[in-house]
Amino acid sequence: MSTTTKIAGAALAAALGVTTLSACGGGDAKDKPAGASDAPKSKTVTLVSHDSFNATEAVLKEFEQQSGYTVKVLKSGDAGAALNQEILTKGSPRGDVFFGVDNTLLSRALDNGIFTPYEAKGLGEVKPEFQLDKEHRVTPIDSGDICVNYDKAYFADKKIAPPQTLDDLVKPEYKNLLVTENAATSSPGLGFLLATVGKYGDEGWKDYWSKLKDNGVEVVDGWEQAYNERFSGSAGGKKAKGDRPLVVSYASSPPVEVLYAEPQPAEAPTGVATGTCFRQIEFAGLLKGAKNEEGGKALVDFLISKKFQEDMPLQMFVNPVTKDASLPELFTKHGVVVEKPENVAPETIAKNREQWVKAWTSLVVK
Length: 366
Prior knowledge:
About 40% of the residues lie in helices and about 20% in strands. By secondary structure, the protein is an alpha/beta fold.
């Protein structure tokens, strides 16, 4: 699944499964394409997504009232697995809209031609830096940052300043403190690898990982194990007696720790090393061959509406991409702003991802 929403999947025990909204309206006959059938238009629009899609009932009801469509959410595992299924069913998709492909997998989706171009209404409100596809085959929906998180209490007790940059992580004072996820099996693990590629380039990232390995980095299969078992700063890690005060997670992790604590603390127990981050962007696209293309277009429009954009942070723990959306107080108070995350162009990722992961595996894991 997507890196930015994996934490939401873990935090929201009652995640949305299949959601339906009652229908109350219809499309305008004058918009019917030439040669289209006079058969009644479908009142159901199906959103295919990774497992962590979520939205509040009231926000979904607003879409119901405005559009008249019934929404069905078809969850399909993590983002990579969901995308694979859509590639295999290209031209005969399981739904009308796909949500959750991110910039690490974007070129793969576009190269396989699974989307129909559509310039969404309200796209002008989406910040230009998120609009990576000039042909509008996909529409940016959210963004988030994969970053190293740190246990504030550990560093305060040891009287050591927490690391802030990738360069810091290879220093002796942070030896045997970091746990990260496997880049071959985990979205955040891959994102962290890409952060180092973005920082040090194709020539320098391997040397950096050699230093990180020498400095005692621990590699586990996935985020759940890293964050909720090995990391000493999370609620789960404390229960599991985790002894690693540094973990690859998300910039949104500190607000989540506050939200689910009882009672809620005045300050988040974890911090973010803002010089270690990789920026992810998630997209939605109208699936080629969609049975309800007009409903799909309406749904894509809704996903970048102010109402949905402002609902996302506390539902999927991601950031809105539109200019007019505001963050909730939990994010502004306990979250961090990553001014200069690392980025790697989607086409560069597509060209090199497999060889980077193989080289990383040989260097760090084997």
